[in-house]
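Two records follow; treat each independently.
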Amino acid sequence: VVYERYCHYCHGREGRGDGRVSMAISPRPPDFVEDTERMSRSDEELLRSITYGIARKAGGEQLVMPRWKEILSEKERRDVLAYVRRLVAEGREKAKAGADGSGQGGAKTE
């Protein structure tokens, strides 16, 4: 539920990068479900991004995603990653169900 408190504003409730403030962010947050390259990274790599944030160089260093090290405990950061992994699995299952015509839509997100 840490995700619901801090992350969904940018990343969206289903991890699609469509949160309420995502339109005002450049670059836009990733769609975790569709971004297979990013989500194929190890847990340790993704935890590093959550812990220390993501910076991009564009005429000087700019923090694109804040570092959560000072705000979230290590357990909370790991819980967020586990939740994101679950959102990805559910989103891909929904997409697969829609593509095969079953219309089942996968598991519900609470």
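The next record belongs to a different protein.
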Amino acid sequence: FQGLPNFVSSYFLGAWQPVCNVGIQENFTTDDIIIFPNPFSDFANVVIENILPSSGTIEIFDMLGQKLKIWSIKDQSALIERNNLPAGVYFVTIQIHNQTYNQKLIIANQ
């Protein structure tokens, strides 16, 4: 899996952990960021708990690691909108305060 982003290769190797990029930060836990429903057909909710984001991003990647969408986040909730993405498996990366959280995201048929 050389050349693919870390979250893609770690998914296929079975390890799926939040990654801290730089600096001294507390790691995100699965309780800090909740994405639901997953799978979804139109939109998914992102709820950020125990963290007060002043700014951050949500990025959607396909299975090859190509960035398809990016949103800015400034508060503790956001929507991931399907728009024109076909049904399939994607990866969502949420970056807040130099911390990165990765999760598999499934878009179902409408």
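Discussion point: The longest helix spans residues 6-12. How would you locate this feature using only the token line?
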